[in-house]
Every structure is written in structure tokens, then in C-alpha cells.
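Why does residue order matter? Because the sequence determines the fold. Keep that principle in mind as you read this record.
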Amino acid sequence: MPVAHRTPKRLLRALKAEILAGCKHPDQRRIGVEWEKLGVRGDTGKALRYYGPGGVASLFRALIVRHGWTADQRDRGHIVALRKGFTRITLEPGGQIELSGGPAYCLRENARELDEHLREIRSVGRPHGIVWLGLGCQPISAEASIPWVPKQRYGIMRRLLRRRGRLTYSMMKRTASLQASFDFISEQDAVDKYRLATLLSPFLTAMLANSPFSEGRPSGYLSYRAHIWRHTDPARSGVLRAALRRDFTIDDYVNYALDVPMFFVQRGGELVSVRPATFRQYLRRGCGHLTACREDWQLHLSTIFTDARLKTYLEVRSIDCPPPSLSLAAPTLLKGLLYAPTASRRALKMLERIDTDHYAALYRRSPREGLDTRVGRRPAREYALELLRLAASGLSEISASRCGERDDKTYLEPLVELLVDRGINPAQALLRDWEAGGRRDLLGILRRHCAYA
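Structure:
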């Protein structure tokens, strides 16, 4: 861990304050969900492109004309983001479409937002034969065959990440995830939530793995998305091992972020590439005519890709894009664990007992072995079932609060049925269908399990 004296204490306090400015009153806590999804051609299963008939650009124009969206961001004339109220639609580098939902007090608000989005995007995609898949990794198209979205941000990242992990380009162009955001109420609450989210990461991979296919066949992994991320820029990805320590602090996170290499800063609406330098170095000496400002720090925090990420809220980023039946399961699970004090405390106490070597082995092996991964002498499955129980009790604990509702548990029930009653995760359900005779019809399997019909 870098020593703090390399950067003046007043600057460290200011950078920390930028994160803790997000502290909320308990009654103001909300949840934000980002659903990435894969658009594929209904006849081939190949990835959707940006240009051409039925490409992303034409779909965006149709959403503007038919459903009241506005162009929120253009990049050299190309529409790369839409907005309607507090909701945005953005693009990942390979044309994956992401719904960035507005923060909501209740999960039914998140669900309503997703339902409306799916209705609209189906309506503009249907004439072109597009199928929208809830899946963690593009199942048929190889990385090299997927064109880049024309977005300056991704052009800079593409150049700087070229040699930073052998599957980095696959991460950018092929993967799709669900990301959930949660508020914290104090500095200690931010620490506890970040530590719990970090400890949960391999268990979320095991429970919600939903990407077993690559280039038209089983990949050997239950979460190929997670496997890809294990081979992406180690300086900014994976888990922050310091968060496994019980004495972890927000200062530790700030010092970590200061030593992550930068991508760019924004000036006059344009992104300016910063030569390979950490934010700490940029603070000390600038870059050419550029000097650091608070917006640079905020932008830099958004370029850290760890499984749990701190900005003015906590982001949990370790979950495969789920099938439709589980679209709200992960946010619900996390809500019960992160927002209910008793459940949160018990979950953290259980997981922080895991030896660091056992945790490292679990993190490494969970993309392939899922719930059967050993955690010392116990399978991950035992921990997963206890986490489900704690989440359910947590939802009951907060049901009378502003961010809780009695019906929240209904979103968790499909995951309970899958993991407890059937003893499998989503990827294993897909593979069972494959083994049962669907080997010649991968797209048919994906339509049955993963299509937002």
C-alpha cells in the first residue's frame, strides 16, 4: 500500500471527502440498477452492430422518434447515449446496450423501469429480427468479429488497455453484467458495505453464473464473463485485497485509487488522453498544460473496474447479466444483505472468517466450478444458502422502512427455487438443456432461457 506522505494530507482528505459527500440519511437510501444486455441477430445469434439496418444507431433513432427519448450524448456526430427523465441508455464497446436506471426507493420501481425499457426496445428491434438476451457473454461471435462502437472514450481505453490482460478486448466487446448501486449513511457504513461487497464477489459469481457458452459451444466455465474479467487489467480489476482486512478504511481505498493508471480527463466536452500516469503522479505534476481538478477525480473513479467500486455510492459489479426470470433477484439479494443492519452484520461476520488463501482460491475457481467450489472444507453452496436466508430475513427487517416493501421477497423467490429446490445456477440450467439434446440449436436454448421475449 502506498504511503500517504507521498500526497499532502489535505489533498487526501479532500479526495476522501468527495466519496463521503454521498452519505445519505437512512430514509434517503435508494437502489440503482444497470442492466446490460446483448442484442443478437435472430437468425444467426451474432452480435448486433452499431451501423447498418437494424444496427444500434438505427434503433436509437427509432427510440427517439417512437418513445420520447432524447440524444443525451453524441460523439463526433454519433448518438452514443439516450435520456428520458432520470433514466439513460448507454453503449458498451461492442454494442451491448445498457439501461442505467434512476435511483429508486422500492424494487418495484426498478422493475417497472426495466419492464418499460424492454417493451420499448423489443418494439424497435422486432422488425429487424433482433433478439435481446439476458446473458453474461456473447455466446456466438468471436471478439475479433465484433466492431467497436464509435465512441472516443473506448478508443482511448482500447489503446491504453491493449497489453493489459489477454482478454481485455473480450471484456470490452463481449461481456454483459448487472450492476447495482447502494447508498451508505456514514464513513463506517461505507467501509462495511465495501468490505461485504468484496467478500460476496465470488459467491455472487457462483450463485448467478449465466455465461457458459463462447463461440457457439460450452466454454468450460459457468461464468465465462467472470473468467474474462480475471484476465483484464489487474491494476484496476478484480478485488481489492486490502478490503479483506478488518482494519480497512476509506483512506486505503483513496490510496489505491491514486495509484491506478489514468485514462483521460475531460476538457471542453472532449476527452483528453493522459500519458501513462497514476492519479497520484497527475496530482503532483499535472500533464502538459493540464492540472488536476475535482471532476478529474470523479471521472477517474469511474474508470476503476473492481468487482466492488466506491464513488459517492457503492457499486456491486460482479454479476452476470441475468435471465429474465432473475432480473431483480441480485438487487433484491443485495438489498437484504446491505441495507438490513442485522443481516449485514451477520453476513460480514460469516464471510470475514474465510482464510485469505481460501478466499483467493474461491475467487480464482468460482467462474468454472460455481457452487461446487470448495471454501476450505466447505462448498460455496453452503455459504450461498446461508446468504439467501440472511437476505430474506434482512428484507423482513427493513420491510417497514422507506426503502422496503413486503413484496420484495417475491423477486428473490426464483433464485431460491433455482439454488435451493433445484440445486443449480442459471448456467447449469442452460448446460442441462444443451446436454439433453440442444447441441445443434444453441440459439433455441438461449431463446427459451435468456430472451427478453
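The chain has one domain: 4-260+304-450.
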